[in-house]
Every structure is written in structure tokens, then in C-alpha cells.
Structure prediction request, 559 residues.
Amino acid sequence: MQLLKVHMTYKNIQRMRHIVAVFIKHGLYNVVERMNLHRIVPFSKRLRKKAVEEAELSLPERIRLVFEELGPTFIKFGQLLSTRPDILPEEYIEEFRKFQDNVPPFPFEQALQQIEKELKRSVSELFQSIEKDPVAAASIAQVHRAVLLDGREVVVKVQRPGIENMVDTDIGIMYTLANLLLKYFPELSILDPVAIVDEFSRTIRKEMDFTLEASNTIKFREMFKDDPHVYIPYVYWEYTAKRVLTEERIKGIKVDNVEKLRKKGIDPARIAHLVGESFLRMVMVEGFFHGDFHAGNIFVLGPERISLVDFGITGRVDRELRDSLANIFIGLATQDYDMLVDEYARMGVLPDGINMSEFKRDYRDLMEPYFARPLETTSLGELLMGYIRVSFRYKIRHPRELLLINKCIIEIEGIVRLLDPKTDLLKEAQPFATGFIKDRFRPGRIMEEVGEDIKELNALVKESPSQIRQIMKKMINDKFTIDFVHVGLENFYNEIDRSSNRVSFALIISAVIIGSSMIIQSGIGPLFMGYPIIGIMGFAFAGILGLSLAISILRSGRF
Prediction:
């Protein structure tokens, strides 16, 4: 409770009370109580836990209902979680995929105020006309059709007023809840809830910056400028700001409207091929891809042309990850289990002590049912997600980009199977994979990599003197410490300590024996039976010490 009082404003505490009340309403009182949050809501609301009639609902279903009731930020958070099969069980992923980002539109007058505030001009100075009813409304923004003064038709994306403050408040509360989960549910530490909130915070803040989305749109427009099959809308920068985005209006048929496509004489199978090919080109050739590839963001302009819109979520694929993806596609096509596991292992973060033999066996057991079916009936998304589920059991972590690619492939396969059930995305990926692998051995590519290595070596040589200087300064100022952590290291230290003591003991015995021998040879001092008494006593003392050392070693069981 002290955590809430210190780090949260009154407004945030009110929101936290509402969140806790919603948790209780949906039968999660035990969770609230264990996190010590039940006392921040009125006693009457606590009693509602007795009246909850949701016992027939699963925990994932109840959490989904909680997020839906809590509004836009939590719905977006749930959508993010639906892309994380590496940390959540399958039943949660399936449930969170049901989130719909459709919310009631905000008043048209507020949209006009937001436009004028952001663009610093009156609406009449910007547009010839703007439609009152939005064509789409989501948690972050809504879209209105408009006509510029020169007659060009556009769409204007306007950010929901107050959404930034709401997101800031909710993210602050999410951090609090994440820390409380770590404190009261230590078994959830493997999920790293704070890191999940970090990722969500970065993602949603980028999505709320429409200038970033505009920049992404321009990059994709440049990417496909010479492609006759893919069209990206034009961005009107003079009508765009952080909370307002104005783009060319795309007049086309939604890609999932198969009946309308056929009426227009458009072959759905050809469109399915174009959709898959465009995404694979982004990932395997360009290294920059659209991260929200659902049907609402794809329009068909003609028999041989599609258009992509809404570039708020994107992903980047470096050369190393593209290399791995190429090997994975080839491995899936050839059913090479060892190649697949080795590539995934190289790509992911493996936990200490993982049993690779068991992991390979489990992966083979999961993949064999898919490979037993005809290739055209095998889902690439299912194959990739199957691996993620296996890796979840072994606590293997993977880069965000790989998970985003998996999510997009699942979305694309849903569209492709609707358009043409015979289209095989894995088969579509083969030319890109083989092309990338061939390019890997191209002399120019090899020279590029050598050049990059030389640059890195040059930077290392340049930076080393200054780094060594810093280390030396810290050593001189007694500020240089090395933290060395190893499981069982304390036992190792104790064993070294015991061994060194025994060596020291043995050296003392040896010194006494040698000294006693020298005294006996000299014949100096009082004699007993013709031998110096001091020498005899020294031998006796050494014998006792040696016997005790031998007994100690025998008792330890180590010779």
C-alpha cells in the first residue's frame, strides 16, 4: 500500500481503484487479495466477489473481459500479449486474439478542434470539405474522409483527444502492477512482467506519433515505387503533425471481400499470391516490414495490384535474422529437424542447463504430424508457432522481430486461405530463401562483410586505448571491482581453502623432518642412546602431525 501512496497521484489512485474493482467483478478477488490491493476499494465492492457468476469461464476468458472493460490501453496491451507465445500459454494467446480494436467514435467537433490545434490553421483553410461520420474508429484515432482545397481526395487520421494522458496513467499503473506481481507472485518472474510493460510502452508511444507513421509510409512508398503490383498512398506532410495524419485516399476493395473481387473479374488466387509475395519481399529482401498485416489494411486496386495502408507498427530484420529465416524456410521445406533446431538455438537466448537432446526430441514429435500431411495443407504459421510453444516449455526467449513476423504470417495465411485455399505460403517463401542463401556467397556480399569486419576491428583498435586508460584510472582509484558469480562457487572456495591448509601443513611437517635430520647428523646437544634429544623430539612431533594429516585425508574420502 505504501508503494501506491508514494508513487501515484490522486487521479492514478482513483484509476487503480477502478481497475481493482473490475478485477473483483470478474472473479479475480484472490489475485487482488494476494497482491494486497483489496483494501483500496470500498467494502461493498469487495462483497461482490461472492456474487460473481463466472465460474464456468476460464482464467484467460476472465482476463480478456477485464481488459475489454478497462478500455483502450488495456485492449492494446492484450493485443500485444497475443503476439507473445514465447511467454504465455496457448490458451491465453487464443483468447487475447479475440480483442477487437473497435470503439465508439468521439464527437466530430473534437476532431475538428484537434486538427486545427495540430495544423495551426482553421479547417476551412485546409479542406474543401470533411465528412462528419468517420470511416473507421479505433482506440487511438479515427479516420475521416476529406477533400483538399485543390480537389484531391484524402483521408485524415485524427488522434483521440486525451488518449495520451490516459495511456500515461495506465502505463504507470501497469508498472505498479508488474512490480506487485513480482513481489507477491515470484513464480511469474520468468515472464518478466516489467520488461513486457516496457515493450508495450515503447510500442504504443510510437504508434501515437503520427509523424513516425508518416515517415514509415514514405519509406514503403519508396520501397515499392518501381513495383507495378503494390501501391503505397501518398503522404501530405503539410497536413500532417504528431496527432493528425493526412494521406491519399485509396479507393479499392477490401482484400477479404472475395465475392466482390469475383464480380469485378479479379482472380482471388492471384491476389493471394501478391499479398504473400509483398510481405516476403519486405522481410527477406528489404529488411523492413509492415507489422499489422490484417485484412483491413490491404485493398485490391485491380487484377494485378494491391495497396497497403496503416504503417503505425513496423519491424526491422537485420541481415543475421534474415539469414536465419532463410535457413528455417529451407529446413521446413526439406524437413531437416537438426538444421531447424540448430538455427533456432543460434537465434534465441537459451537458458542455462537446457537439455538439447530432449528439446530436439520434443520438437521432432511436434513437427512430424505436420510433415506427414501434403505440403499444400501445411500451415507455415502453425509450424512457426509450434516451435514457439515448444521453446516456451524450455524457457527459450526470441527477438521481438521474430515474434512479430510470426504474427504477420498467421494473419496473412488467414487472408490467403480465404482467397485461395490451395496457396502455400511456405512454397511462396522458397524463392526468397534460396535467393538470400545464394546472395550470401556472392563475392560482393563477402567483400561487404569483410569490409564491415575491418571497420569493427578498426573501431576496436581506436577505442581500446581509451578503455584501457579508464580501467587503469579505476584501478588506481580503487574503484575497479569484478563481480564473479558462479553456482556452487562457495563450495569451490572452501575446498581450495582446505587444500591449501593441507599443503601448508605438509610443508611444516617436511621442514620439521629436515631440521630434525640435520640436528641428528650434527650430534649437538644432550644425547639419548647416542642421538640428540632435540632431533628425536622433532621426528616424534613430525610423526604425530603426519599421522593426523593422514587421518584427516582418509576421513574426507579424497586421496
In short: The chain has four domains: 102-249, 253-441, 447-482, 489-556. The chain has a mean pLDDT of 82.
